[in-house]
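Exercise 7. Given the encoded structure of a 315-residue chain, write a plausible sequence.
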């Protein structure tokens, strides 16, 4: 909160300052709603202040007070974003920095208790898009933080999401749903020159790398919770799965827990898994279909999985 001395130095009254703070808060709230949470550039907020005032220190004062009031009144943190790195050019080389390029921007992040937010604030109609966002971020995270467009859509197709589907019953246009993640700064999209032509790459951007997102992501992956639906019915059947990456061995191992009894189909094809097929899979008594083709597996098929052998896609 600005003191009377600070206001006197800037030559503005408390009433004028409060009016500007309210205008900035209103703009941030409505713009966030209208653009589905896309970042708001600092220059947009500065323009509200400098429209009728020319004091250089005034924009920072108003924006900072708007941040404090949004937190105190609505439980929103107005979080500042900055690009993690400079986007590459089509040749694959980093572009030269430009004046005011990729300026600071802000997003609203709720600080409310999750149950309170879900009950009173969350838009239930946006749940499918949230699930899609989490699925995409999870896939790219498991790919090492970067994935080609071709590989990403290949994985999404296995979830029933086709690249050219413009009338998905929940997402609408699938391509536009993916592009929205770029606009929201969850993903960074680049077109790079390769030996066989241009390749479009997606990389995790600053919002996906934020601890509030990455922490939940790692927790969900470690528990085996399906990021597409995030439903407990799906989670109950695969909750004991853990992801291990040790030396040359990279496999998903199973611990025998009650929830595994519901798992009937397991698709792990088209990954870079190495080593042997774990015997622990034999504890999944209802498993009837196992897809592990196009990996780099070695050894023999475990006898514990004999009942599944006829329905197993083996390299």
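Solution.
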């Amino acid at each position: 909160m600005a003191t009377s001395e600070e206001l006197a130095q800037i030559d503005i009254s408390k009433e004028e300052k409060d009016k500007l703070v309210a205008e900035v808060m209103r703009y941030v709230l409505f713009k966030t709603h209208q653009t589905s949470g896309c970042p708001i550039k600092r220059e947009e907020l500065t323009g509200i202040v400098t429209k009728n005032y020319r004091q250089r220190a005034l924009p920072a004062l108003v924006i900072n007070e708007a941040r404090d009031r949004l937190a105190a009144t609505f439980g929103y943190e107005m979080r500042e974003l900055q690009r993690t790195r400079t986007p590459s050019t089509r040749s694959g080389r980093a572009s030269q920095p430009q004046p005011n390029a990729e300026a600071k921007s802000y997003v609203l992040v709720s600080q409310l208790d999750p149950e309170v937010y879900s009950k009173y604030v969350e838009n239930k109609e946006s749940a499918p898009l949230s699930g899609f966002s989490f699925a995409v971020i999870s896939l790219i995270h498991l790919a090492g933080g970067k994935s080609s467009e071709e590989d990403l859509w290949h994985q999404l197709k296995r979830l029933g999401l086709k690249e050219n589907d413009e009338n998905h019953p929940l997402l609408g246009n699938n391509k536009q749903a993916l592009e929205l993640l770029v606009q929201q700064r969850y993903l960074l999209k680049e077109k790079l020159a390769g030996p066989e032509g241009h390749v479009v790459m997606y990389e995790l951007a600053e919002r996906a790398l934020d601890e509030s997102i990455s922490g939940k992501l790692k927790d969900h992956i470690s528990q085996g919770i399906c990021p597409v639906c995030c439903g407990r019915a799906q989670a109950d059947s695969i909750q004991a799965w853990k992801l291990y990456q040790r030396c040359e061995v990279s496999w998903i191992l199973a611990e025998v827990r009650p929830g595994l009894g519901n798992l009937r189909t397991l698709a792990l094809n088209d990954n870079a898994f190495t080593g042997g097929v774990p015997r622990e899979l034999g504890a999944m008594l209802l498993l009837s279909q196992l897809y592990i083709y196009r990996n780099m597996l070695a050894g023999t098929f475990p006898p514990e999985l004999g009942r599944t052998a006829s329905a197993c896609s083996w390299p």
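Remark. The longest strand covers residues 187-194. Students should compare their own answers with the one above.
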